[in-house]
Amino acid sequence: MVLDVNVGTIISALRIKDTSRACYWDCLIATTRKEHGLTAIYTEDLGFKKIEGIKIVNPFAIYPT
Q1: CA-CA distance, 45 to 49, in Å (whole number)?
Q2: Per-residue pLDDT band at 4 (split at 50, 70, 90)
Q3: What residues does each domain of the chain span?
Q4: Most CB atoms closer than 10 Å: which of 7, 27, 60, 61?
């Protein structure tokens, strides 16, 4: 699936970056996710924990040891 990104998306991502201290690319992914109504991100990247309002699902933690 390819999701559109526009100038508003980029501006929102920069605002999140300023408040969260997460990297720009994580902020852009988080903003795009929100704009398209997606509720979770499947990742093992802990950088997303810095961004408020994201449900993070680690696909490798489904079967904890």
Answers
A1: 8
A2: confident
A3: 7-57
A4: 27
